[in-house]
Write a structure and sequence with these properties.
With 277 residues, the protein is an alpha/beta fold. The chain has one domain: 3-Layer(aba) Sandwich (Rossmann fold). α2 runs parallel beside α3. The longest helix is centred in the N-terminal third of the chain and has 12 residues. 30% of the residues lie in helices and 19% in strands.
């Protein structure tokens, strides 16, 4: 999987960018954290950061001290970019490797648009729970397979959004949904599936709500309005926003014996003492 990101997704298709528009979901995450924790005192990990813009936005809005904010990503290219901007960044495949972080190190773990990219999301959730404090918060955002528009697209025989059929192109769409390069989606969740998945791994969902489409996937104004309206109903929304906390000890499920568990050595990257991104 790491090679796919190195050779295609984060090289030929979608290279990590130093500057880009920060997705609205980061505001949702920051606002939720501010409601639940004294932000200046927390230690935070973002898994799948990809570029400096998201972490910078969270760090500035939460006013988290630089030493208390760490990031991890599967892509060496993304980690190199993050480190060049002064972030403490670790290159790790969260679906196969344990991170170097100690048990219970973080108050908050953010996995925004990550689960859908993982070969083994169970391993990743167990690892996220391991590094969370017993009263810590896990933030997840992920596309909703059962989004309102996917129900219509599937009925019409069109490949649903967020799904991918090839490592070359997304086939099965036309019209205002032209063929595009894949981003690495492997697993998609519905409202029910995501809730059951987290409950299975001993995580109590304390908030699960919908998110509208990010970007220009809905280019027609009436459809954009409809999408925003549908986001009020999580089971029909384009995206799912989850806050969860450990409810009981780690799942008795151990990582698959077919996957070699490795621990990433401590990162040598450091983040500068600047407060802005």
């Amino acid at each position: 999987m790491r090679q796919l990101y190195a050779d295609r997704i984060h090289f030929a298709y979608h290279p990590p960018e130093k500057v880009h528009e920060v997705p609205h979901r980061y505001d949702c995450i920051a606002d939720s954290i501010l409601m639940r924790r004294p932000a200046k005192d927390i230690r935070l990990l973002e898994v799948g950061a990809e570029s400096p813009m998201g972490p910078s936005h969270l760090s500035n809005k939460l006013q988290v001290p630089p030493v208390n904010f760490e990031v991890a990503d599967i892509s060496e290219r993304a980690v190199s970019l993050l480190r060049s901007e002064g972030w403490q960044a670790e290159c790790v495949d969260i679906s196969q490797q344990r991170t170097s972080y100690a048990d219970g190190r973080f108050d908050v773990v953010v996995m925004s648009e990550v689960l859908e990219h993982l070969i083994d999301p169970d391993f990743a959730i167990i690892e996220a729970k391991r590094v969370l404090k017993p009263d810590g918060l896990l933030y997840i955002t992920t596309p909703n397979l059962a989004a309102w528009f996917n129900r219509f697209l599937l009925f019409a025989g069109t490949q649903p959004l967020f799904t991918e059929t090839s490592v070359e192109w997304t086939f099965g769409r036309s019209g205002f949904l032209p063929r595009s390069r894949p981003v690495g989606h492997l697993r998609l969740y519905t409202y029910r599936a995501l809730k059951e998945f987290l409950d299975y791994h001993g995580l109590k969902v304390i908030e699960l709500r919908g998110l509208p489409v990010e970007g220009a996937i809905v280019p027609i104004a009436p459809l954009a309005w409809l999408d925003a309206t549908m986001s009020v109903f999580p089971k029909l929304a384009a995206g799912l926003f989850v806050v969860a906390t450990p409810s009981h000890p780690l799942s008795s499920l151990s990582p698959s014996s077919s996957v070699q568990v490795t621990t990433v050595p401590p990162s040598t990257g450091t983040r500068s003492k600047r407060s802005e991104g």
